[in-house]
């Protein structure tokens, strides 16, 4: 019988300390945020975008809540009633004109 040392399928290896090379590399300094200057001051475009974003969000929230819009239930009911009354008045006018009045 073959001894384990004589087996051709066994490969002799060497244990190596696995120190990652990334840990040895010097880390690059973090890049500054493109929306800020080196001193930490935000750019005008960044501030404007942030304000516009907050404004449009508040408009959307107002629309969702139904506040500050003319499309409330009472306003829609009044529009329907006004349209129905205008239709009745126009129909009465057409009938008078057909009778010759």
From TrEMBL:
Recorded superkingdom: Bacteria
Region spans: Disordered: 1-41
Name of this protein: PspA domain-containing protein
């Amino acid at each position: 019988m073959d001894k384990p040392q004589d087996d051709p399928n066994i490969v002799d290896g060497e244990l190596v300390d696995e120190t990652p090379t990334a840990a040895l590399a010097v880390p690059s300094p973090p890049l500054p945020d493109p929306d800020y200057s080196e001193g930490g001051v935000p750019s005008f475009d960044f501030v404007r975008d942030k304000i516009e974003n907050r404004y449009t969000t508040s408009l959307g929230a107002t629309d969702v809540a139904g506040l500050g819009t003319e499309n409330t239930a009472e306003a829609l009911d009044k529009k329907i009633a006004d349209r129905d009354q205008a239709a009745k008045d126009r129909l009465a006018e057409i009938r008078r004109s057909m009778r010759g009045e």
